[in-house]
């Protein structure tokens, strides 16, 4: 049986779409919903990735992705990688509405739990990148494949609907272990830099330099450059912020008594604040590995929203909102 499709190849000088026959090609069509697409329309684009043709376009809150290639298995692998990249860009998986393989609707009732992101993480202001041919292309997908996937899987499950009822202690512990997985074990010069910058003596361990690396490039620089004042409203210095993250991770991981680590996070509200900051910073770190352009004004606006949110939780009526 020969499978034939019309393949869109462009428009002529009059704007009329031109099609040609695609013979022996398999097709996957994916339809997804996300609030992001309502305010940030994805202009139609087409790219070649791993011997497959990928087209994307959005309509209102719906994103349509079409993948065409010879191997249906390779197309499915590519689709899953692209979904993971979109997860990083948006902060959560778009809701999968429909999947078709060669125009046959696929049953999605039993897809993995990680694809059902909690509503709390489906927000416009969590987006870090635009969706276009500069952020979805062969080079980006190739870089994505070089990244350790286990921390990304953990991140996806951590914000999934199934994890909604898990205790905040477990969630923050898993998130802090994800930092271990995305920051290199070898961070030359960071230990000395920490001791010099924060006037610290003695052994600071191997984990704190990893947290410093993450926060230095993906939180502290924005915090200081744009006067976000999140540390101020948390009543923390840079070093006490790092210390609290490190001590919480060590205390939770090794089941230490509360009197063993005096800087650990104390309650669920505090855990939630740190979770929001670190979840965003981890995504920034992973996206940076893809070498795509991030939208700095979106990043700053998100941090301002975090400041406003924390001030509201603390009933700080005297503080003016930033966002």
Structure report:
The protein has 323 residues and is α+β, with helices and mostly antiparallel strands. It has helices at 36-39, 72-90, 138-146, 149-158, 168-182, 190-198, 207-225, 230-234, 238-253, 268-289, 296-313; strands at residues 4-11, 17-23, 26-33, 45-49, 52-59, 62-69, 95-101, 104-105. It has a six-stranded antiparallel sheet with strand order 4-5-6-3-7-8, covered by helices on one side. Strand 5 (52-59) and strand 6 (62-69) form a beta hairpin. 29% of the residues are buried.
Can you lay out the helices and strands and say which pair or pack?
Layout: E1 4-11, E2 17-23, E3 26-33, H1 36-39, E4 45-49, E5 52-59, E6 62-69, H2 72-90, E7 95-101, E8 104-105, H3 138-146, H4 149-158, H5 168-182, H6 190-198, H7 207-225, H8 230-234, H9 238-253, H10 268-289, H11 296-313
Antiparallel strand pairs: 1-2, 3-6, 3-7, 4-5, 5-6, 7-8
């Amino acid at each position: 049986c020969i499978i034939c499709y019309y393949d869109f190849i462009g428009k002529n000088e009059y704007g009329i779409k031109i099609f040609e026959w695609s013979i022996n090609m398999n097709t996957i069509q994916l339809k997804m919903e996300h609030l992001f697409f309502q305010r940030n329309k994805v202009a139609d684009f087409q790219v070649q990735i791993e011997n497959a043709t990928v087209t994307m376009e959005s309509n209102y809150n719906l994103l349509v992705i079409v993948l065409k290639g010879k191997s249906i298995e390779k197309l499915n692998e590519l689709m899953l990688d692209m979904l993971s990249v979109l997860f990083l860009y948006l902060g959560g998986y778009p809701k999968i509405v429909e999947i078709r393989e060669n125009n046959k609707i696929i049953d999605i009732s039993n897809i993995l739990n990680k694809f059902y992101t909690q509503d709390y993480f489906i927000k416009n202001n969590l987006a870090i990148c635009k969706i276009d041919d500069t952020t979805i292309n062969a080079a980006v997908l190739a870089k994505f494949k070089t990244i350790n996937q286990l921390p990304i899987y953990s991140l996806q499950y951590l914000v999934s609907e199934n994890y909604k009822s898990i205790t905040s202690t477990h969630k923050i512990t898993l998130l802090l272990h994800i930092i271990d997985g995305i920051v290199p074990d070898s961070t030359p010069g960071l230990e000395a830099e920490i001791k010099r910058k924060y006037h610290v003596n003695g052994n600071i361990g191997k984990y704190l330099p990893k947290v410093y690396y993450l926060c230095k490039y993906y939180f502290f620089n924005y915090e200081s450059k744009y006067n976000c004042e999140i540390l101020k409203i948390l009543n923390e210095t840079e070093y006490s912020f790092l210390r609290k993250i490190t001590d919480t991770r060590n205390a939770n991981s090794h089941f230490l008594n509360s009197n063993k680590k005096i800087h650990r996070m104390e309650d669920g509200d505090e855990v939630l604040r740190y979770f929001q900051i670190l979840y965003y910073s981890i995504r920034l770190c992973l996206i940076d590995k893809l070498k795509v352009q991030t939208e700095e004004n979106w990043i700053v606006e998100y941090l301002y929203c975090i400041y406003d949110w924390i001030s509201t939780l603390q009933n700080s009526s005297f503080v003016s909102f930033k966002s």
